[in-house]
Specification:
Number of strands: 2
Strand content: under 5%
Shape: rod-shaped
Order of helices and strands: HHEEHHH
Oligomer: single chain
Distance between the termini: 97 Å
Radius of gyration: 30 Å
Length: about 140
């Protein structure tokens, strides 16, 4: 039985070395995953910024259209559109909700400008303010 003991000892040492190497490799892979995730987030942010900058004119036009829709009789019939005279500022909540949350989300998904604007109109028509201004 004596010759088996050195063989078992060598096998245990080899297995312990393999386990240590695997543990180290798993740590390296986790670091690589974290780096890849950080890089992906950075690249996505840069791409989003570039795409928004490229659509500046489109966004300005959409905000102007929304302002006019708010002022129109068949819109929200607010005489001053998006301007909140009592607060002396634009309706930033409306701009955020309709331009960024609805319009841009639709455009990023590939929807046309006209269809994205229609999505905004449809969403506005589901609001309490719309129902107050356009009772059936």
């Amino acid at each position: 039985m004596k010759p088996v003991t050195p063989v078992l000892f060598i096998a245990v040492v080899l297995l312990a070395g393999l386990a240590a190497w695997q543990y180290q490799r798993i740590g390296q892979l986790q670091d690589e995953i974290q780096y890849a995730q950080r890089t992906l987030v950075e690249q996505a942010g840069k791409l989003a910024t570039e795409r928004l900058q490229a659509r500046r004119g489109e966004l300005v036009g959409t905000m102007q259209w929304l302002h006019e829709f708010y002022a129109a009789a068949d819109g929200l019939a607010r005489p001053e559109g998006l301007w909140l005279s009592e607060h002396k500022k634009p309706d930033f909540e409306a701009l955020g909700a309709w331009v960024f949350d609805v319009y841009l989300t639709a455009r990023v998904k590939g929807t046309s400008d006209a269809d994205a604007r229609q999505a905004v109109v449809d969403a506005i028509k589901g609001t309490d303010e719309w129902r107050r201004r356009h009772p059936k």
